[in-house]
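As described in the Methods, two query proteins were run sequentially through the folding procedure within a single session, without resetting any intermediate state between them. The first query and its resulting structure tokens are shown here.
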Amino acid sequence: MQRDLSAHLSLDVTSPVTLAFELAVSTQLAADEDLAVTLDGRRLEPTEVLDLHGTRVHVVRADPGRLVLDYSASIRGRAPGLTALDVDTLRYLRPSRYCESDTLGPTAHAEFAGLHGFDLLAAVSSWVGSRLSYVPGSSQPTDGAVRTLLDRQGVCRDYAHLVIALLRALDVPARLAAVYAPGLTPMDFHAVAEACLEGRWYVVDATTLAPRSTLVRIATGRDASDTAFLNVHHGYARLDELEVTAVADVLPDDDVRELVELG
């Protein structure tokens, strides 16, 4: 399988600012790639900082002006899945900013009592997918899993947060992965949950909007607070343009009865 990816961002920087981008593919993947950042046409050199699970953060310090970032990558084949470490299984059992598993514990136990392993992952994914409506622009940046369940609508990150919170409430380690998603319509960055079974991480995507086997890992963490494609610090910048592309030479059917690792 070959997957070709790109991202184009344009920002209006109105005061000196520090920008942290998470949009390059994970170090888990071998990719031919290019990253270019310019400010009013002048090339800037970002600093790459490594985070957990191969997440790459590109930090840019910029003065006022028009900042443009262009990223492209080509990936051939699939990488092996990530093995769960002991510290991971502990970290991803805890409640987090957007995944209030402590609050949703009674709901999780009432709905999924007696289910384990694959049957539990399938049941949670189906339950979330059938109870939420995918409505672009329906959620706020501060909405977590509880708000999503009450509103019964959201976008990919909201679906993932609810899946993660329910699984953690049932003592299944779960986390969020930001990905490129060939086949996604409309095209954008995508967010999915990953759940740990027997030491391996498996994709759970209650939106079913793209084949799981084509997804490309960008960033991994507790929830969207760890995986946002852009964070703005110490100044102000407005995002004016965002274009994402992700294509694969093959778009396979996604059999929901199969366990799929992100690779």
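Immediately afterward, the second query was submitted; its sequence and tokens are:
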Amino acid sequence: MEISVAIGGGQRMTLAGAVLVYEGGHESFAVWHPAKADESGGAPYLGEAEPLTTEFLRMLSTGLGACVAPEILPASVLVRTSELLVWWAPAQDRILFFSESSEAGAELNGKRYPIPPLVFKVSGGSLSVRALDKDERPSPESRLKTAPFWNCNDSGEVCLGTMRVPESSGVDAIDSWERGFFQSEFTHAHGAARLTSFPGGFLPLCRRLAGTRQRFPVRYLTDARETLRQFVESR
């Protein structure tokens, strides 16, 4: 397991104390040990144990980002926790950008395409996306489809590449995540999953759809082999 801590602003941090867990037999308990300053100028040391209070735990979880501030959830949101945001987007038209050095080249770059309904997931700063074959809010057992885009691996996780990543993972950043995804360059196929069952594959389908007014033909979406519930619970 890898653990990293990012502290912005260059602020000076000092030891406040430590939560220690004691175990004996089949029992265990946790207590708070406040940090004490060494009068001789040495390193601080831990003081005597103090019982943990509900208010202390609430303050600790807030400081660690485990609490979600009250938010008015739009109808598109499917799941919201302190670590996870999942929402769906209806079928629409979007301009897609392809790297001119890729197989798509200038031929397909910067054109408008019909997009199927999608499910987005933001977790730990990562973005994942799946597709839907029905243009309606999915249920927990809805079967998901592979998102028909380059830069997405078999589990739906997006290779961020040139994408502008929002600093927030709250509901206020949903539009920014979607804009960042669609305004970045699609550069390559990222994984072994078939992006589409269209004869000839992904690029021929893009050529057929570029600049058209038709809806995305969902019959060509491939099975992602998971439900919405499984997508939400996967890490």
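Residues 89 and 118 are 5 Å apart (CA to CA). We note this only descriptively and draw no conclusion about the first query from it.
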